[in-house]
Design goal:
With about 425 residues, the chain is an alpha/beta fold. It has twelve helices and 20 strands. Strands 9-7-5-2-10-1-11-15-19-20 form a ten-stranded mixed β-sheet, sandwiched between helices. Strands 14, 16, 17 and 18 form a four-stranded mixed β-sheet that branches. Helix 4 crosses helix 5 and helix 4 packs parallel to helix 6. The longest helix has 19 residues, at about 155-175. It is globular, with a radius of gyration of 21 Å. It binds guanosine-5'-diphosphate (GDP), 6-O-phosphoryl inosine monophosphate and magnesium ion.
């Protein structure tokens, strides 16, 4: 059976965690293929709420196996906290989660480097989650990384010390006071000693060659869902560079993040919010800096699941959405948070950009807010609260029209509409 992919089409936080959880009963395996604890995937059911950073969102289904693939980067300190949060559910995480030996580790010094690099950027800072993502992927690409498989190697300590020294040298070039940086509220040495102890936690997991595991699952006709983190506009190649993350968040990332051949990819589910949000810096053409933006943030509870930062909010951006559909080869769209738009008299949606006086629906190379003027279409809003709507047919007509309009513009069916954070608040079409 071919592997299906679920990923974000905007700047992250589209609701990927919720939908992976909703779809998991149909899958045998759920696998993360990129990113690390910069991700925060929220899942709500039975009045409980969980935020996952590294663990795949299939964890709450009793049957599914969850794989952390080679493309992911792992911080054992954060993984431990996630496990603690899930503990009350009684789920045996160590039986249900398999780790790729080839996944790289986020070292304590990667966190220091992330902080000093951001500080040095001044006004041009990325707004990173400061989880060490950029420096850990940099070490991977420059062939200096340490992988999960190395933790049982007799030369692990030597490798670790070598990396630590190299990172100290680098960090001191940027900021002589670097060692004062707090990590998770702790001083460096204290954090590091806990981090080193948490390597034992990784040893308690089954560590696998996940490319063989996934390949075998495909051969045995098992159903595998690849779960993306971040979103297309944060992709290292196709996002709003340099205001991006350091991995391929797009469907191509599944091939190198899990070792899947392109021919083995099946459906591609693209998740998008009925409006847009972005957390951190970088261009955001449809951003609303006014009371409407504030209202979206309030109604949508738009505060980061990983950092708690307020998310920037704006109207739906169709040129960016079409671009994301093109890059990922999306076959089905899932539209999230439509309930947040209830009560707006009118809703705007950007159909084009005006760049240097010319109309286009292409995302330009130079994507800065100064050179892009979004061109909006205004559609009527709806008053109805959607909390107790359970079928697509029962949605207000203006909302149905809005959904059909987007579907027509983008050219891909919207077959799921989400009307609230709970698992149950999901309409299939
Ligand atoms: P992810 O990173 O893509 O998994 O998304 P996040 O969990 O960071 O952010 C999505 C937020 O929206 C979470 O707080 C979800 O509980 C919430 N959410 C998901 N779907 C809906 C929805 O349809 N309506 C509302 N109001 N909230 C939703
Ligand atoms: P999920 O999976 C939203 C953003 C950061 C910053 C930029 C780079 O929950 O959708 P990094 O920590 O990777 O160096 O940050 O990317 N970012 C996210 N924004 N959702 C995420 O993940 C994000 N992961 C990173 O805010 O602008
Ligand atoms: Mg998130």
């Amino acid at each position: 059976m071919k592997i299906d992919i679920l990923l974000g089409l905007q700047w992250g936080d589209e609701g990927k965690g919720k939908i992976v959880d909703v779809l998991t009963p149909d899958y045998d395996v759920v696998a993360r293929f990129q990113g690390g604890p910069n991700a925060g995937h929220t899942i709500e059911f039975e009045n409980k709420k969980f935020v996952l950073h590294t663990i795949p969102s299939g964890i709450f289904n009793p049957k599914s196996i969850n794989v952390i693939g080679n493309g992911v980067i792992i911080d054992p300190f954060i993984l431990d906290k996630e496990i603690e949060d899930i503990k009350p559910t009684g789920i045996d995480i160590k039986k249900k989660v398999l780790l790729s030996r080839k996944a790289h580790l986020i070292l304590p010094t990667h966190r220091l480097l992330d902080a000093v690099y951001e500080k040095a950027k001044g006004d041009r800072k990325i707004g990173s989650t400061l989880k060490g993502i950029g420096p850990a992927y940099t070490d991977k690409i420059s062939r200096n990384g340490i992988r999960v498989g190395d933790i049982d190697n007799p030369n692990f300590t030597e490798k670790y010390q070598e990396a630590r020294e190299r990172h100290f040298k680098l960090a001191s070039m940027y900021d002589p006071e670097f060692i004062q940086t707090k990590i998770e509220g702790l001083g460096f040495e204290e954090y590091e000693s806990i981090w080193l102890k948490k390597l034992d936690l990784l040893r308690e997991f089954e560590r696998i060659d996940s490319e063989y595991f996934i390949h075998q699952a495909v051969l045995e006709n098992k159903k595998v869902l690849a779960e993306g983190a971040q979103g297309t506009m944060l992709d290292i190649d196709f996002g709003s560079y340099p205001f991006v993350t350091s991995s391929n968040t797009t469907s191509a990332g599944v091939c190198n993040g899990l070792g899947v051949a392109p021919g083995n990819v099946g459906k591609v589910f693209g998740i998008f919010k009925a409006y847009c949000t972005r957390v951190g810096s970088g261009p955001f053409p449809t951003e609303l800096m006014d009371a409407t933006g504030e209202e979206l943030r309030k109604k949508g509870q738009e505060f980061g699941a990983t950092t708690g930062r307020p998310r920037r909010c704006g109207w739906l951006d169709l040129p960016a959405l079409k671009y994301a559909v093109m890059i990922n080869g999306v076959t089905e769209l899932k539209m999230m948070k439509v309930d947040v738009l209830s009560g707006f008299k009118e809703i705007k949606v950007a159909t084009h950009y005006k760049i240097n006086g010319k109309l286009t629906d292409h995302v330009p190379y130079e994507c800065s807010d100064e050179n892009i003027e979004p061109v909006y279409k205004t559609v009527p809003g709806w008053e109805e609260n959607l909390e107790n709507v359970y079928t697509f047919d029962d949605l207000p007509q203006s909302l149905k029209d809005y959904i059909l309009f987007i579907e027509k513009e983008v050219g891909v069916p919207i077959n799921l509409v989400s009307v609230g954070p709970d698992r149950k608040q999901t309409l299939m079409r």
